[in-house]
Specification:
The complex is a heterodimer of chains A (about 475) and B (about 250). With about 475 residues, chain A is of the alpha/beta class. Chain A has helices at about 15-20, 25-45, 50-70, 70-85, 95-105, 120-125, 125-130, 140-150, 165-175, 185-205, 230-235, 255-265, 300-305, 320-325, 325-330, 340-350, 370-375, 380-395, 400, 405-420, 420-435, 455-460, 475-480, and strands at about 85-90, 110-115, 135-140, 205-210, 215, 220-225, 240-245, 250, 275-280, 290-295, 440, 445-450, 465. Classes of the chains: A alpha/beta (about 475), B alpha/beta (about 250). Chains A and B meet through helix 1, helix 15, helix 17, helix 18 and helix 20 of A and helix 1, helix 2, helix 3, helix 4 and helix 8 of B.
């Protein structure tokens, strides 16, 4: 369990955090079980789509086009949303976004808000800011409620309480809702949450939401969800405040045809989300009377400016990459030290920090490509990871400190060896000599290395290494072809 | 056909027997093998770890060494993936028109070993004999970058005497990932542990793959845990012959 908010600025490096997380066998078993279940559901509803690959390509094209013309579509959204009665605010960064939301809630005359699950509000740690301003936020998404009541942190984009099992959830509800006799059946837990939340829905006058999509053509905002609690937050309050990253825009209403097929199948393995809410400004006859939307940059334009990494912004937050990732499977989400965990977090988080923090995250991947394979908008996550690794290397090897970087020195030496056949052969010979003191014979008389020095020690913690054969392939080849070196 | 072999740096150094097996299979099929002697490394380790400037000269070197080849065969899907996934972009990014054209001309002639047999030669039975219980691990690059699909399995199924058993979660990474195995040793080891239990569950004598890098990783834990299960490259199985083995 994570105590404080997940903040990349203060989080430990991934290898350390991962090691700690992997000590929790309950957590690992919960994560394995949950990701297996979601993956199997996803596979079923994706496999039944004959045009899935075409849909992915369409999704990618729509997102790429949007990012190329983001300035245009944002202004179009602003104009259309304003015309429909919405009030558009622009926030340069997290601090500005928090200030705007806090002041809007205060202006609404409420000291409580009901919230729809929103990763963007998690990104900017909005709840803490609201509480500091004397405003009580109530999370209404079941999983977010579990997180909030358990004073925990989300570990997954779509299923934030994925690391908790039913018994753990019952314990949290028993303790915080004062229900000592609560059962552990899904129905019992859902009933408890419903009773707890319904009273909030009816009382609280101000709602806060994120957004799945902003539609430039109409000025509409789209939120998809499974429970209907989001629909309550969008329709019952008098004031609705939505916060969205500027990357959430889609050009046309019709683009939802593609994204609303890709998103639910990838995210929860559903053919359609049970609740698809789209609202445009305000309507005097129904719903909130006041609608504000905060469009937040928070380093997104920096990402946009990086041609190679720009595709990161195409993400529609389905979480399929997290479910597919063999690294996330072992560690769960908290080890990533960010509300964006898993493969997408490994590329998004360091970039949201403008590469000043979370530098270990681009290395939190074996580059197996499972994330790219399932991504509904074909973000080539391994390619972006490699690009970000290069940025990290350039940062670490520039200036005086770079001269003392052991890894960089080794990599540069290796590169020099590979640039010459003569040097390569010499290194092969030298390697055989250098490893000799480390080699031990096993019961079959074969040489193995079970201890390696320095950085390489990570290998020998759990793995042996065969000693190098006496003859390289090229030595054999030359002997065979009858000309010696 | 005249086949130019790119053995790869780690096979050359650590797994020369795989290179010999590749030569044996190709020659048995009537092809001539050629080994451009200036070859070293494809640059994958540097590229994937973030040392892009260091990887570029190795791309240039590969192109120079294999420019004249009729076909290039490589017993490592991750090195082939390095070339297909990254070489074109690497060349284009430095605005080197000639290198870009050279890469574009060379890449269609580059094949991973099993892919050369199944896709280029259209073969499944290469006359191999290997009387052991074997399970096949689908390496990530072979599976996702090269789309090898069931090609390697079809080659294995045609091997006489083999008892081929399916590996559970065959598509899951073994946790190697090059420098990932040392930079994130704990996670890598946990991933490997799942792979090892899947291998042991098959009851196989040997685990095979198209990449000795994954196999070196899997073998490392199989040996540490005294399981008695071996690893060997697909080429080493396909090189097996009845008269030698019987």
């Amino acid at each position: 369990m994570s105590a404080g908010p997940l903040d990349p600025k203060t989080a430990p490096a991934f290898p350390m955090a991962a090691k700690a997380a992997m000590g929790d066998s309950q957590l690992r078993s919960n994560v394995r079980h949950a990701t297996d279940v979601i993956q199997a559901k996803r596979a079923r509803v994706v496999d039944e789509m004959p045009d899935w690959q075409a849909l992915r390509e369409a999704g990618k094209q729509i997102r790429e086009h949007t990012m190329r013309h983001l300035d245009f579509y944002l202004e179009q959204f602003e104009a259309n949303c304003t015309r429909a009665g919405g009030v558009v605010h622009w926030a340069r960064d997290a601090a500005e976004a928090r200030r705007i939301v806090v002041s809007l809630v205060k202006a609404s005359g409420s000291d409580e808000v009901i919230k729809i699950k929103s990763m963007t509000t998690e990104e900017i740690q909005l709840n803490a800011a609201l509480e500091a301003a004397g405003i009580q936020p109530y999370e209404t998404d079941l999983a977010e409620l579990i997180i909030q009541l358990g004073q925990d942190q989300p570990s997954h984009i779509v299923v934030p309480a994925l690391h908790k099992n039913r018994q753990q959830i019952r314990e949290i509800f028993q303790r915080t809702m004062h229900l000592p006799n609560l059962g552990d059946q899904p129905q019992d837990l859902a009933d408890a949450a419903r009773l707890f939340l319904r009273e909030k829905f009816l009382r609280v006058k101000t709602g806060v939401s994120g957004a799945n999509f902003l539609i430039a053509e109409t000025g509409g905002v789209c939120v998809v969800e499974s429970e209907g609690n989001g629909r309550m937050c969008l329709t019952l309050p008098e004031t609705l405040i939505t916060i969205a990253g500027i990357d959430k825009v889609l050009p046309r209403y019709q683009d939802l045809e593609v994204t609303l097929q890709l998103l639910p199948r990838s995210a929860t393995g559903e053919r359609m989300n049970p609740y698809n809410s789209i609202w445009t400004g305000v309507d005097p006859a129904d719903g909130p009377r006041v609608f504000h939307i905060v469009l937040m940059d928070n380093a997104r334009t920096e990402i946009l400016a990086d041609e190679e990494a720009r595709q990161t912004l195409n993400c529609i937050r389905c979480g399929a990459c997290q479910n597919a990732c063999p690294v996330y499977r072992q560690t769960g989400g908290h080890a990533y030290g960010s509300v964006y965990a898993g493969p997408i977090g490994a590329i998004l988080t360091p970039q949201l920090q403008e590469m000043h923090h979370a530098q270990s995250l681009p290395y939190a991947s074996s580059l197996c490509g499972a994330c790219y394979e399932v991504c509904p908008v074909k973000i080539n996550i391994p390619e972006v990871l490699i690009h970000l690794r290069n940025k990290v290397v350039l940062q670490n090897t520039s200036g005086i400190a770079g001269l003392f970087d052991v890894e960089a020195a080794a990599m540069k030496a290796m590169a020099a060896i590979f640039r010459s056949e003569r040097r390569f052969r010499a290194a092969q010979r030298l390697g055989r000599i250098a490893e000799t003191p480390l080699v031990r014979k096993d019961e079959h008389g074969l040489g193995w290395i079970s201890w390696l020095p320095g950085m390489l020690g990570g290998w020998s913690q759990t793995r042996d290494l065969r000693e190098m054969p006496k003859e390289t392939f090229r030595d054999w080849w030359e002997k065979r072809s009858g000309h010696d070196n | 056909m005249r086949v130019s072999l790119f053995i790869t740096c780690y096979n050359d150094t650590l797994f020369p027997s795989t290179g010999k097996s590749v030569v044996r299979v190709l020659e048995r099929l009537g092809h001539t093998v050629d080994f451009p002697r200036g070859q070293t490394c494809c640059g994958q380790m540097h590229w994937n770890t973030g040392y892009q400037a260091e990887a570029l000269p190795l791309l240039q070197r590969f192109v120079d060494q294999f420019r004249a080849a009729e076909v290039v065969v490589i017993p490592s899907s991750s090195c082939v993936a390095m070339m297909r996934d990254h070489y074109p972009k690497m060349a284009a990014e430095i605005d080197d028109v000639r290198l870009t054209a050279d890469v574009a001309a060379l890449l269609p002639k580059v094949f991973e070993f099993s892919e050369f047999l199944t896709k280029r030669l259209g073969l499944e039975d290469v006359g191999a004999y290997y009387p052991h219980r074997v399970t096949y691990h689908a390496s990530c690059h072979g599976l996702r970058s090269l789309s090898l699909g069931d090609g390697p399995l079809r080659l294995l199924k045609a091997v006489r005497g083999i008892d081929l058993v399916a590996l559970d979660r065959v598509e899951q990474c073994c946790g190697f990932g090059g420098t990932f195995a040392v930079k994130n040793a704990a996670v890598s080891s946990a991933m490997l542990e799942e792979k090892i239990s899947a291998v042991l569950d098959t009851g196989a004598d040997a685990c095979t793959a198209c990449d000795n890098s994954c196999l070196m990783h899997i073998q490392g834990a199989l040996h540490r845990q005294h399981t008695g299960v071996r690893t060997l490259h697909l080429a080493d199985i396909l090189a097996g012959e009845e008269e030698v083995q019987a």
